[in-house]
Amino acid sequence: MSKPKVYITRNLPDEIIEPYKGDLDIEMWPEKEVPVDRHILLEHARTSEGLLTMLTDSVDKELLQQSENLSIVANMAVGYDNVDVVRARKKNVAVSNTPDVLTETTADLTFCLLMATARRLVEANQYIKDNQWKNWSPLMLAGSDIHGKTIGIVGMGRIGEAVAKRAKGFGMKVLYHNRSRKKEVEENLGAIYTAFDSLLEQADYVVCLTPLTDETRHMFDASAFKKMKTEAFFINVSRGGTMDEQALYRAITDNEIAGAGLDVFEEEPILSNHPLLALPEVICLPHIGSATKETRYKMMTLSLDNLVRHFQGKPLLTPVT
Ligand code: NAP
């Protein structure tokens, strides 16, 4: 029997792909760093039965309409805002993502970013390397405390909960906001359910961990930043579209908030002349929330497992429903 044709939109390691070659007829975009050209993706989607996509690939109306053979898109990310899931469902194309395997790794990065922002680690590193460290002084590179402060987690899902655990370890008070309450997080971690505006008013660290949806797009806008404390920091590890970057820039330069730690941006990669990058109060990372070798390998394997199961007629391990 012929194997189902699968196109992988980035060059993944041989050691990961090799075990799947018995079940899948795999072709891959040859580049490791550069996303697949749109016309190549469309061409392969037209002839493939499965796609293994990255968050940089847009699986949209155009792609889905022209891809008559396609029956599954395995997206190598927990977020799936790059996939038109409603249209995929209408076209009977299954969609899977990679939840759970990246939760702890992304929570580690979120807390790292919070700490680096609060304690000005990037500035401090540069200070030495630029040969500016000539003396000790009482307020040299003085940052903000983390222990004993209040964290406000917007999006208390899998990653939000893992961040709350870390915050508890640092003796922080944990507030959270979701559309629905999570009683087990309240009981187990003492997290307090708080209305969005009230969380903004109380938190010293506002951490965004929601998916990007029509509802969360620009949830952090000028009015949200205005409600935050002047000494508070905004940390975003969800998707850049949840924040209005111009409003964030203004909030920081007008001293409405103290600074920000950002792993995600409205346009990725962010341009090097973007005004946010010039602010010392802003720490920026190139979307590396889940970027450890262990976790990325698990995400690749989970995506491939979903593809194999789909073509074997078995339920997906992690379907997007
Ligand atoms: P999850 O378990 O689905 O958690 C998302 C949480 O957001 C849920 O608790 C949900 O609760 C809440 N939420 C959804 N819409 C909301 C709204 N309008 N207002 C307030 N809360 C809302 O997902 P996860 O695994 O924790 O991942 C969260 C997101 O992190 C992903 O979607 C992805 O975009 C991002 N992420 C980024 C990286 C990175 O590298 N930077 C890595 C992994 C994940 P309710 O439904 O009750 O509202």
UniProtKB/TrEMBL annotation:
The record, for Pfam families, names:
2-Hacid_dh, 2-Hacid_dh_C
Q: What is this protein called?
A: Glyoxylate/hydroxypyruvate reductase B
The UniProt entry, under PROSITE patterns, shows: D_2_HYDROXYACID_DH_1 (PS00065)
**Lineage, highest ranks first:** Bacteria, Bacillati, Bacillota, Bacilli, Bacillales
- Key words, A-Z: Oxidoreductase
Chain coiled-coil ranges: none
Task: Give the family this protein belongs to, as stated in its UniProt record.
Answer: Belongs to the D-isomer specific 2-hydroxyacid dehydrogenase family.
Q: Where is the D-isomer specific 2-hydroxyacid dehydrogenase NAD-binding domain?
A: 112-289
Cellular component (GO) terms are: cytosol
